[in-house]
Each structure stands twice: as structure tokens, then as C-alpha cells.
Amino acid sequence: MYGDKFEITRLPSLPPSEVPSKSKVVWEKISQQTKFERQLYHYGTFQEGFYWGVSSSAYQVEGGWNADGKGPNVWDTFTQKPGNIPNNDNGDVACDSYNKIDEDLHMLRALKVKTYRFSLSWSRIFPSGYKSSLNQKGVDYYNRLIDGLIANNIAPMVTLYHWDLPQVLQDINGWDNPEIINIFNEYCDFCYATFGDRVKFWITFNEPQTIAWLGYGLGQIPPNVNQPGDAPYRVAHNLLKAHAQAYHTYDEKYRASQRGLISISLNAEWAEPLDVNAPREVMAADRALQFQLGWFAHPIFKNGDYPDAMKWQVGNKSELQGLTDSRLPSFTDKDKAFIQGTADVFSISTYTTKVVRHVTSRLDIASYETDQDVKKDEAEGHINTAVNEQKVVAWGIRRLLNWLKEEYGDPKIYVTENGVATGTDITVDDTDRIFFLKTYVDEALK
């Protein structure tokens, strides 16, 4: 995780979505670049004040799944059912960070990081998801962690939601239920009031596209809902409204006294056109980025509404499928004004690059994936990792950062996730990770 130093900024005024994308200059640049130029190593240094950090998430590291009054979340429910995860692994203990704050702080000091990004477990603070179920021991745990970080001159960067919804809230349909918007805001309000005197960087959601698509479309992660044609769009609609409300709550009640930043961590892989000189393939690559990243970034960082590419694609396919309304919900003018500009910096998670080409998808399959009319393939000739879909393609991060700069008006950017998956048999002399970090960081420096 890396980015510029924390400071309060405001996003510049941006043109409406109807104005042709400025990002076309990125395609023009890369179309002239040779493979040799693409892979040249750059020698230089990052500017003073550049923030280096590491990150984690509650379910992945805390353990203590039912310790001291914590309530179950959707990942507890899912992983504790035999057969759902290989080897029946789960996060009941994980890295046991709940019981190892001192050890974690020691390792963070040794790494000499300036910031540590971690997430709060909603069900550890509110076991039932509601404020009325407040668990003080959960609050005490996070207070000890935050105080320990500050004592070691490490700035806490706190994610309010990293996929681990309290099970009680999933029982009322989770993020597919608009009622959760106010429930989430109540949780955020409590966290700002309780930890905001020390936390100066908040992230509302981690990778909302993953929540909507993998959680409610493909059903590959909890809550394992398989409704690919419409649920992802409804869920994303609620996530955007929940994010905006959480932003405004901080803005109106806490910003003046706490002087912190609010962001949302979006995810994207760079989309490389199959042929950078073929307009149809370039349009397909741009469309892939709009569906994955612009789905959330366009409403927040541009004009409060979805990208035109999404509205046209989903609306057109919905009509051809005999529907009277688009499967992509619409925002009212009031919604748009409420959502627009609700992030102080741009936070991005990225790991790899896909090669994208245009395809014409079948109409009898209603799906967020087929709505895009694109096909994504792995980039050939690149190093594999322990995750098949995440090949090491370092030059993609540079292109993605340039695309963000042009598309969203040159915002301050924080890379909130980037890393490489390795096998469990890798020793401490893990040259794979050294190579990954060296090349990706160099591309970011470029």
C-alpha cells in the first residue's frame, strides 16, 4: 500500500459524463510504445512524505471469531460449513491478531512503515449489526490497536467494511436491502465518534465491485447469492448510497474537529486492448474499465451517475430481453447531487492486467458479465502466481494510474492494495515477491 502523505483535499470540478473521455490520451500513448520501452527499469526516488504501508482485513487476521462477545458474520457462517472451503479451512483463529497486538506492532516497527491499513469487524463492535448491541470489549481491542500504532508513529488507515457483514443483517438480505444504508451509517457514526480523534484516514468500503459481483452475482463469496443479471446492480446502488451517507455524516459532524479524510477503496485490473491500434478493441478495453471501476468511480468522482457505457449497454440489452426497465437502476437528481464528490482522495486496489477484446454476448443470458460485450484473457508470457487469475504484469499498474489521472481529473491517488500470492512452501528467501514488489513499485514511480 502506498500513496502521498495524508492531507485534506477537495476534488476539482469535473465535466459531465457526456463529454468524451480524456482517457483516450492513454491509449494514444501506449499504442506507440515498444515492448522494450514498456519494460525499461527506471532509477529514481519517491518524493519526500510518500506514504509506505501494509494492509490487512479483520477476518483474514484477527481470529477470535466468537471471543469476548463478538457476533457471527457471513464469513464465519460460510467457512464453518464443511466442504465450502478446501481442507475446511476457516478464519476462526487465522493469524490470531486479536490476541497478538504487541507482536503485530513489533513487526510493523521492523518494517518501518508509515501507515497500517486494517479493517474493523462490524460484528465485533455491534454483534447484531445494530448500535443497541454494542460490545465494549470489541471497542477496547481496537482502541488498544490504534493507540499502539500511534505510539509507534504509524498512522492508522481504517476500513469500515471489508466484506464481513454481521450475519443478522444478511438474514434481512444484506446489501440487497435498502434498509441497510441507515444501519451502516449508524455504525460509521459510532466509529467516527469513538476512534476519529486518532484515525485520520477512513475507507468506507473495500472493493465494492467484488461485493456486488462475486457476492451477489456469481455467489463465489459470502453471502453466496447467485443472481448475476440484476442483484449486483441493486447491491451496487445501495453501496453507493451508503458510502455517500457515511461521507456526509463525517463531513457534517466530524470533519471540522477531526480533520480526516474519507475515501472508498475501488478495485480494477488494467484492461489492455488486444490490438491497441484497433478502435473496436480500444473501446472494449475502455468499456471493461468503466464496468469494473467506473461503476463506482464515475458517480463519486464525476457527475453522480453511472458511466454512459454502462447505461447504454445494460439499458439496450434489457430492452432487447423484453424488459420495460433497465436492470441498471437509475439515480434521481437528488441522489446524483448527494453522491457526487463524496471522496477526498482516490483509493485503488490492483494486482494484474487482462487482455481485452470485443465480443457480442448472447441475449438469453442476463448477466453483469455479458452486459459488457467483452472477453478478458490472461496476459501471455508473464509469471504465474498462486492465484491463477493474477499473473505478474507490472507495466499494467503504470497504465492504470495514468488512466485514472486522465479519466478522473488528476486526483490524489493511494494504492491501497497490491501484492503477490505465493504458495505456502515459499521460504523467507522468496525471490518471487522481491521481483514483484520491485517491478510494480518501479512502474508506479514511472
TrEMBL record:
Name listed for the protein in its UniProt record: beta-glucosidase
Any Pfam family: Glyco_hydro_1
SUPFAM superfamilies: (Trans)glycosidases
PANTHER family found in the cross-reference section: GLYCOSYL HYDROLASE, LP05116P
Protein family per UniProt: Belongs to the glycosyl hydrolase 1 family.
Subunit composition and interactions: Homodimer.
Assigned keywords, A-Z: Glycoprotein, Glycosidase, Hydrolase
